[in-house]
Amino acid sequence: MGPKTFNMQTQTDFLNQDHDIEKKLFMVERNFEHARMNDTGCLEQRLLRFKKDFERRMQDEKGAEMRRFKEFELSNMRLEEAERYR
Questions:
Q1: C-alpha 6: how far from its chain's center?
Q2: Distance in angstroms (rounded) separating the CA atoms of residues 48 and 56
Q3: Gap between the Cα atoms of 44 and 50, Å rounded
Q4: Tally of CB atoms within 10 A around 33
Q5: More confident call, 21 vs 60
Q6: DSSP labels for 4-62?
Q7: What pLDDT does 15 receive?
Q8: CA-to-CA distance for 33 and 41, rounded, in angstroms?
Q9: Please, what's the b/e burial string for 55-70 (b: 16 or more CB within 10 A of its CB; e: otherwise)?
Q10: Smallest Cα–Cα separation from 73: which of 81, 84, 63?
Q11: What is the pLDDT of residues 10-55, one digit of tens each?
Q12: What is the model's pTM?
């Protein structure tokens, strides 16, 4: 009997490892984009809410200023009328 021979095989699957890394990178990028979009959405919602609050405050202030102006004008008209009849 001669020397013993062995049949051995080694499987290296670099393509599959690259695919796994690409898949993981893709997932990280997708999660990052999703988080960024959520942050952007939150920011847009906060800006819209701020804009609505600001517009409401401006309307309230404008209404208060108009009431003050009308009261002032009305009191001036009354004083002028009172001065005329003295």
A1: 66
A2: 12
A3: 10
A4: 10
A5: 60
A6: ----------HHHHHHHHHHHHHHHHHHHHHHHHHHHHHHHHHHHHHHHHHHHHHHHHH
A7: 55
A8: 12
A9: eeeeeeeeeeeeeeee
A10: 81
A11: 666 655 666 788 888 899 999 888 887 777 777 888 899 999 999 9
A12: 0.47
